[in-house]
Structures
1.
Amino acid sequence: MDQRISLITLGVDDLARAREFYEQGLGWVPKSAPDGVVFYQLPGIAMALFGRGDLAEDAHHPVDGRFSGITIAINQRTEADVDAVLAQAEASGATILKPAERVFWGGYSGYFADPDGHVWEVAMNPQWTINDDGTVSI
């Protein structure tokens, strides 16, 4: 089996509000938006927004309201870029969970929760390379 992730789907409470956050707030551009779902092409991977209840039904797993222990990361090239992404997210309705700071592994990172509570890390890791196409090399 190939070692990869193809799609991350976020279950959202209000698809229109989630689209506004990602598109108006963060400047993302949808690739496709068939009825009830929206897809964003990211470097080497795709992300979808799908109604939380619809996703629970599709997965046959109830939404229990607890933090799942999963975060999504957006790596940046500089500390200033990390700060800018966190500020943009907060200005668009995200909740800052941890302001950016230098961390034990030698990088710089902070966390925000999007309007549906999905936890995102924004990080700069000096040991990783962000390629010109946006992909990350570890």
Note: The first helix runs from residue 15 to 25.
2.
Amino acid sequence: MFTPYRELDALLDEFVHAVHGILGDTFVGAYLQGSFASGAGDLHSDCDFIVATTVLPARATEAELRRLHDEIPTRPGFWTKHLEGSYADTTSLRAVAGLGTPWLFCDHGHRELIWDAHCNSPHTRWILRNHGITLAGPPVTDLVDAVPPQALRESMREMLPGLMEDLRTWARFDVAWSQRYAVTTYCRALFTLHTGEVASKRDALEWARETLDPRWRPLLTQVIQDRELGWDPADPPRPGSLEAMYAFGAYAESFAS
């Protein structure tokens, strides 16, 4: 069992078999990272993967992977719409020098692969190195070097000042889910700044509620309790919660300096 969900485990088995067949001798291994690797995956999580390859997919191999990811979300079931991850060559995956290299990326539930560095970040590498679940291949620690705490902290200092503006480019703040996501993301950034490590969404919220200024406890408690509501485009934010989110964002961003 890789996850608490039999349907997801069956999908992962089929997925790894199909990917291995497409990649052939360039296939190195397949791994879970993200929420399921850190022990916090649930029905509101996506299923994050990394497939390690000797070389980045190209030409016929890339085309076959694109066809596979175009087909998977058309299958019946819940988890077929919730895969997210990248195909990473072992050279750029190994050390922090490879950070930012674009990998062939499947966004959450999307059918079209893109070249993007979304998964090639310090926090993703830290989770993969420290908690990654091996679906196939060698132990992930054979492929990924340790991420220095300073690299994690610096990435958060760079991210924090523009975080809210970045969220505005894709998140609808008339939806309650976006308010919760923003607060959670700020908490994860502050946790990393403080510890040089990475926490799951729930653990970061709990840490923030116990560690930060007590005036934020009502907001953080609301976000923790409302996570079970999941994504609902018709669910507006609670009264006053957006104002609290913006104030918390400004507070969190002040730590970047």
Note: The radius of gyration is 19 Å.
3.
Amino acid sequence: MDFGYQGKVAVITGSSKGIGRETAGQMVKLGAKVMLVARGEDKLIEAKEALSEYGEVDYVVADVKKNDSAVHIIEQTIERYGRLDILVNNAGGSFAKSFEDISISDWEQDLDLKLLGAVRMSNAALPHLKKQGGAIVNLTAVLGKTPPASSLPTTVSRAAGMAMTKAMSKDLGKYNIRVNTVCIGLIRSDQIEKKWKKEAPELSWDEYSRLDRHNIPLGRIGDTEEAANVITFLCSELASYVSGDAINIDGASGHAL
């Protein structure tokens, strides 16, 4: 099956580890050239070395909270590879408190990273994506659709990212640029593994993953690879008529239609 990645160039933020790194690996193996982006150079070097055996990979150390960093990332990508076809906005983290416990600074930092970081990267990438069309995938979260108590500000940032995705898909469709968001549920990550080792170190990962208290109908926490599979599909030619969607990767744990 041809995913259409040969000759394509992708920029993936937050790609030194986790979902971003796994997605980069899948795209490289399918023939894409990938620019990895993160704030920590050590992890980027490690990721580049691991993935380079499969194809062309490079990296940029940058913080997407800075306007000039987004421009620098795209400039470096064009200088290195000559084009840009795919942008995956994956930079972010989880920060959740109750409304009365959040400072204005907390709100500003969360929105600056998760929402405006994607805005900055998309703005910088747009002139190049317009040349031949392409794909943007914004990572958000399932809880952005149904925010529970004590989930701020992250669920607000993620809900805003979904709204932005829908509007972008309508504005950019005329350039054959597809824009989608994947809404992440419980997926194995550094943060989840720390929680496992703190809460139940006596259990194996498989045992912890399948605990009833996670309330996942499919019965387990998802693997990083499973999230990357969906992102890789959405950025491929196989998804050439998919745009403006918010797709859950959550084992059916979400409650929104």
Note: The first strand starts at residue 9 and ends at 13.
